[in-house]
């Protein structure tokens, strides 16, 4: 008889523990979803989290139940303690607001990145990096040159509204830049732009604690631009931070340093072809060398990004950093008769740009990964609203784009499937 009672007590303990574990885990999961500091939980991550919380809370309930406490108030108190422990764990499991890093490479057309299927290995690192990121196959620039596209990228405003059509124009301060949005959320903000057209006089320093740019067309290559952020971080130890890094290497003249100058055309013995002239023909062999040098510039930027990521990892900054890589516009390389450069007609090669976004996990455990490729059309103006939604921030009233977080959630997107230029 005593044995039967013992078995019955064990059965009741297990039953109560299962019920208590499932109920407590369900409550913890709801609280976890509602208290995330940024991001969201996919269905897969919710199932994993539910399983982990259920096992953990079940174990705690079972330990209490098997002790055969005679004081019911004590048992109730212990059960409530388990519930509060689980709720506390949900808070400890949330990562703090992430850093945001935006890398923009001037004049970089998407179809010259091996990431997008180009036959030359111009971006071997970005191909590896893409395994941890979302790659957008149909990302479009809002303009064909920097002074038109960047005012669409940073404040999410269409060219017809910002009206910057030449380099003498100044960005209207009523437009809220990404830097201003994040600064209002207590981010430290840093910018370094190697293109002198993105200077203070044009209004691009809005919202930056520190903003570095050259007065003239100086040789400020990607490694120098990226190092400036690491140097600033070593001095300020700022977190969370927003870093805006704009490198100009793929812009003419195509003059990469060794070994990138001959990486894709080692046989060339003539004078380096560092660019073309719109409307003027160059020979087929000169064109081959010019394109090889352009590709070398892209490879240089790829290597510089790799080194920057290594530095972030060394300083324990990588895991909780939202990283965006894109370009302000592409580049015409005599694709159509004598069409060279940018700033003219919005052909595919000039407005189709690369876009990768690496979203950090909102949880410490289990980590939530957002990866894959998206074929829907997105554009520069959609980036700020996406950052705002991911960080649970109020988007500026002046922003005109659509957040594409629904694409990341694998839902039907509530956005236009075309891009306005």
- Oligomerization: single chain
Number of separate strands? 11
Radius of gyration: 27 Å
Shape: elongated
**Helicity level:** 25-40%
* Largest sheet data: 9 strands, mixed
Percentage of residues in strands? 5-15%
N-end to C-end Cα span: 83 Å
Structural class: alpha/beta
On the 0-100 scale, what is the average pLDDT?
Answer: 89
Helix count from the secondary structure assignment? 12
Please provide the ordered H/E string of secondary-structure elements.
HHHEHEHHHEEHEHEEEHEEEHH
Low-pLDDT segments: none
Fold and architecture overview:
It is a single chain. This protein is α/β, with parallel strands linked by helices and 421 residues long. Helices cover 39% and strands 13% of the residues. It has helices spanning 2-34, 43-66, 72-92, 124-129, 146-153, 159-162, 178-183, 222-236, 284-314, 348-351, 383-390, 405-408; strands at residues 99-105, 134-140, 188-193, 210-212, 241-247, 321-327, 332-333, 340-341, 352-353, 355-358, 372-379. Strands 1, 2, 3, 4, 5, 6, 9, 10 and 11 form a 9-stranded mixed β-sheet that branches. Strands 7-8 form a two-stranded antiparallel sheet. Helix 8 (222-236) packs parallel to helix 9 (284-314). It is elongated, with a radius of gyration of 27 Å.
List the helices and strands and how they pair.
Elements: H1 2-34, H2 43-66, H3 72-92, E1 99-105, H4 124-129, E2 134-140, H5 146-153, H6 159-162, H7 178-183, E3 188-193, E4 210-212, H8 222-236, E5 241-247, H9 284-314, E6 321-327, E7 332-333, E8 340-341, H10 348-351, E9 352-353, E10 355-358, E11 372-379, H11 383-390, H12 405-408
Parallel strand pairs: 1-5, 1-6, 2-11, 3-4, 3-5
Antiparallel strand pairs: 2-9, 2-10, 6-10, 7-8
């Amino acid at each position: 008889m005593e044995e039967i009672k013992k078995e019955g007590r064990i059965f009741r303990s297990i039953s109560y523990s299962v019920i208590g574990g499932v109920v407590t885990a369900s409550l913890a999961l709801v609280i976890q979803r509602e208290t995330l500091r940024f991001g969201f939980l996919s269905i897969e991550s919710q199932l994993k989290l539910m399983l982990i919380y259920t096992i953990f809370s079940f174990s705690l309930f079972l330990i209490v139940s098997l002790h055969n406490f005679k004081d019911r108030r004590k048992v109730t108190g212990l059960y409530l303690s388990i519930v509060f422990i689980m709720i506390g764990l949900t808070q400890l499991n949330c990562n703090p607001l992430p850093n945001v890093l935006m890398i923009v490479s001037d004049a970089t057309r998407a179809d010259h990145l091996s990431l997008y299927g180009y036959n030359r290995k111009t971006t071997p690192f970005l191909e590896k990096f893409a395994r941890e990121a979302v790659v957008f196959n149909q990302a479009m620039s809002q303009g064909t040159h920097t002074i038109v596209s960047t005012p669409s990228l940073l404040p999410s405003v269409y060219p017809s509204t910002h009206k910057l059509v030449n380099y003498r124009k100044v960005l209207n301060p009523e437009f809220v830049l990404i830097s201003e949005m994040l600064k209002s959320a207590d981010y430290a903000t840093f910018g370094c732009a190697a293109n002198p057209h993105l200077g203070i006089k044009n209004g691009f320093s809005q919202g930056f604690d520190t903003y570095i740019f050259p007065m003239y067309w100086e040789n400020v290559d990607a490694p120098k631009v990226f190092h400036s952020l690491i140097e600033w971080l070593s001095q300020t130890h700022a977190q969370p931070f927003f870093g805006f890094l704009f490198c100009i290497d793929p812009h003419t003249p195509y003059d990469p340093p060794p070994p990138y100058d001959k990486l894709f055309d080692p046989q060339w013995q003539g004078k380096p072809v560092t660019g073309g002239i719109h409307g003027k023909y160059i020979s087929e062999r000169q064109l081959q060398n010019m394109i090889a040098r352009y590709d070398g510039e892209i490879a240089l930027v790829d290597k510089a990004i790799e080194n920057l990521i290594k530095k972030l990892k060394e300083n324990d900054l990588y895991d909780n950093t939202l990283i965006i890589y894109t370009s302000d516009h592409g580049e015409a390389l005599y694709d159509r008769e004598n069409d060279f450069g940018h700033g003219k007609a919005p052909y595919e090669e000039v407005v189709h740009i690369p876009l990768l976004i690496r979203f950090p996990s909102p949880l410490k455990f289990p980590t939530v990964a957002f990866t894959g490729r998206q074929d829907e059309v997105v554009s520069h103006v959609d980036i700020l609203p996406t950052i705002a939604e991911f960080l649970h921030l109020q988007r500026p009233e002046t922003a005109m784009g659509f957040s594409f977080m629904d694409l990341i959630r694998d839902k039907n997107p509530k956005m236009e499937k075309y891009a306005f230029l």
